[in-house]
Amino acid sequence: MDETVIELSRLTKRYGEFTAVSELDLSIRRGEIFGLLGPNGAGKTTTILMMLGLAEPTSGRATVCGIDATRNPIEVKRRVGYMPDDIGFYEDRTGLDNLMYTAMLNRVPEAEARRRATELLDKVGLGSAAGKKTGAYSRGMRQRLGLADVLIKRPEVVILDEPTLGIDPEGVRELLALIRELSRDEGLTVLLSSHHLHQVQQICDRVGLFVGGRLIASGDLAALSQLLDGSSSYAVELDVGGWSEGVESALRGLDRVTAVDLQEKDALSAADRSDDVVTVRVTGTDDIAAELAAVVVGSGASLLGLRPLRYGLDEIYHRYFEGGNPVGQLH
Ligand SMILES: Nc1ncnc2c1ncn2[C@@H]1O[C@H](COP(=O)(O)OP(=O)(O)OP(=O)(O)O)[C@@H](O)[C@H]1O
């Protein structure tokens, strides 16, 4: 089941003295949605171009669907749908015409192309705009048409370079949901590049953090959090009413608890809380939320809130930049 669809090994691209991508190793499995996350200039587009055989690696190898992208770019192109960040359409033609044209270039028979184009336009929410010239499409509509355009030839893999660039938040939400849905419905492997942490976090099964041409970490969110933390620690924030030293020592007394820290009250929450309500952050070696709740209540205090804390990608990203050290790699 764990069939590898994209395999990059020691993939490197140098422009003169400058190394844009350095010794990149990455495997992406069939059906995965993988987010290549990194700031501008990190080397995301260069990596994508090498996967498509559109840029030649200085060394290393990119294999897509078992095909060497450098040696056989045409075969790779048949199986991969690529949406660049500056997608272009024939502006004086309709959305449907544009899709039909792409289908023709990919040798899809006309009747099938029309059926598929109509179905895809509906799927991406452009059914009613199918007959409208793309010159009059909004940025969000263009991106959705772009998705339909890469899917018309029934690719096995879809590569999307910054798909949400320039779209408003509502449009972004819709587009991401659509990408996930299409990936599930069509059994697609998706690689998407982005510098938007939250967006990637919403739909990707795994992410790779790409900085300065290097993949500094990859894994699912939980794995990345753990990697950054250096240990398998879990943290929970509790809002407790009737806080006392007794409650505190009962929490500290638990085997798997490593720290109990009282949190400072912020001005907003202090305003509507009585003095004996405190927020404590409890760290443990395991997921101990249920045990903590039982201890608080058992000590006669009241539990007013409980929030498991997990690092978001934002925090992971900033920690990397603040710390300045590569955090390692997970596969
Ligand atoms: N043809 C080229 N010649 C020289 N340098 C290049 C060339 N193409 C890209 N670069 C450099 O390689 C680095 C990586 O560029 P790349 O476009 O891959 O980054 P990116 O992560 O996709 O960033 P962005 O989000 O800005 O597109 C950049 O510093 C860029 O200036």
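^ adenosine-5'-triphosphate complex. The chain is about 35% helix and 30% strand. The longest helix spans residues 169-186.
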